[in-house]
Design goal:
The chain is mostly helical. The protein has helices at residues 29-45, 50-63, 68-84, 90-106, 111-123, 127-140, 145-157, 161-171, 179-191, 195-205, 213-225, 229-242, 247-259, 263-276, 281-293, 297-310, 314-332, 338-341. The chain is 70% helix and 0% strand. It has a domain at 1-158: Serine Threonine Protein Phosphatase 5, Tetratricopeptide repeat, CATH 1.25.40. Helix 4 packs antiparallel against helix 5 (111-123). The longest helix is centred in the C-terminal third of the chain and has 19 residues, at 314-332. The protein has 18 helices and no strands.
């Protein structure tokens, strides 16, 4: 089974950044202009224009089989179709490999071609060949960050954690005082659920960047995952101070404040999050529970009704019905009833 399943999409070249390189000589002007127009049209149309672009790139290759940029772009297009069309057609991957093989044959020292072929080979579950291509791409271009991130993902996916740490640390020598690889390596360890190691990289980003709200947000999430709520709260607050629009920081604050028993404060942050992300059913569920825990039953009922309206998940709808029934029953109880006095001790999830 492919150890990198679920990770590959991060390394596809997005439609919006397919690159156009200026013509290197007057003899290539016409095909270069065609290439430029195709890329521009694809950037404007997005995924809807992928088939038209594919046809155009393949036409360029028919005109000039040695036009490597078209080969790389057609491989990108097939990868995008495979990952995002909803149809996993192996033939698209085989076609991508064919074009990348031709590109590598034409330009053996083309690091981007090697990297893209590694991505496709991981998709084809050809792990050994993919790793060889990745290593070669890093040999050709030591500061090729995407290749290093994908190789780090490979090490973590194959449970070579210690080797992954050594590799990421040694990689930093190629990016002196650059916060981007530090953040990228931290994110990669975070995705592998190695939160302590992720934090070790995030902490080195902050001194290099005057404003790093996304790094503070990531630090908060990492601390939250290792159940260190106090530093998590500090990180989430710094993220919001630097970017008040970071809704996820409100969610993190609400969770950690709830864990510390500060339910009224948690309510305010969960309300702020839901105000920015009104269709997040999980957050609505948590907000409804917080309302119940703080005795705001009318708001709780409205929140549970929103859960029912927003969710197609039977489990959420059933839970909402149970809580609505419980709240309605509590209203009918006399104030002296033990049931009416009881507290809802369900925790937000």
């Amino acid at each position: 089974m492919n150890a990198l399943k679920g990770l590959r999409a991060a390394f596809l070249i997005p439609v919006a950044i397919l690159l156009f390189f200026p013509a290197s000589g007057s003899g290539a002007e016409n095909i270069e202009e065609t290439y430029a127009r195709t890329v521009q049209a694809l950037n404007q149309e997005g995924f809807a224009g992928i088939d038209k672009a594919l046809s155009a790139f393949e036409g360029m290759i028919e005109r000039d089989p040695g036009f490597v940029k078209a080969r790389l772009s057609v491989a990108d297009a097939y990868l995008l179709k495979h990952e995002f069309s909803g149809k996993k057609d192996r033939g698209w991957l085989d076609a991508a490999v064919k074009h990348l093989d031709a590109a590598v044959t034409r330009e053996p020292e083309n690091a981007a071609a090697r990297f893209k072929r590694a991505v496709v080979r991981f998709s084809l579950e050809q792990q050994d060949a993919a790793v060889l291509d990745l290593r070669k791409s890093m040999e050709i271009s030591p500061s090729f960050l995407d290749a290093r991130i994908l190789y780090l993902q490979h090490l973590l996916a194959t449970r070579k954690s210690d080797e992954a740490v050594k590799f990421s640390e040694s990689s930093l020598a190629f990016f002196p005082n650059d916060p981007a690889p530090l953040k990228a390596f931290g994110d990669t360890f975070f995705q592998a659920k190695e939160f302590g190691r992720a934090l070790s990289f995030y902490k080195r980003v902050v001194p290099l960047v005057p404003k790093a709200p996304l790094t503070h947000l990531a630090m908060g999430k990492a601390y939250q995952n290792i159940q260190q709520c106090d530093p998590a709260l500090d990180s989430f607050r710094k993220a919001l101070a630097q970017n008040p629009d970071l809704a996820e920081a409100h969610f993190g604050l609400a969770f950690c404040l709830g864990e510390k028993g500060r339910l009224k404060d948690a309510v305010g942050h969960m309300e702020a999050y839901v105000g920015k992300v009104p269709k997040d059913v999980s957050a609505l569920n948590n907000l409804a529970i917080l309302y119940e825990q703080t005795g705001q039953n009318q708001k709780a009922r409205l929140a549970w009704l929103r859960v029912k309206q927003a969710s197609e998940d039977a489990a959420y709808r059933e839970r909402a019905d149970q809580h609505l029934h419980k709240l309605l029953s509590a209203e009918k109880e006399t104030p002296a009833s033990p049931k009416a006095k009881g507290k809802n001790d369900e925790k937000p999830k």
